[in-house]
Design a protein that fits this description.
mainly alpha, 4 helices, globular
Length: 84
């Protein structure tokens, strides 16, 4: 696994239940400002349940895509109390 992947996944694992971060915020916190699209690509490939990739959203606050179905992402977020 690349250094980028490890750092991004660590940031995403640390997002608390009921909170979200944008792809850009994750990239910046991982030390890769400007790599929002790369974060999105990594999240698209993630099927590890220990990585709550549903908590990573678009910069405009919309849910964005989800590799397990967009409706599932919205439902997961709403179940955690996130208002979209």
């Amino acid at each position: 696994m690349s250094d980028f992947s490890e750092k991004v996944l660590a940031v995403v694992r640390a997002i608390p239940r009921g909170q979200v971060m944008s792809y850009g915020e994750v990239a910046k916190q991982a030390g890769y400002p400007g790599a929002a699209r790369a974060v999105g690509s990594l999240m698209k490939q993630n099927y590890d349940d220990s990585v709550p990739c549903h908590r990573v959203v678009r910069a405009d606050g919309r849910a964005g895509r989800y590799n397990r179905g967009d409706a599932n992402k919205i439902e997961l977020l709403r179940n955690e109390g996130v208002k979209l």
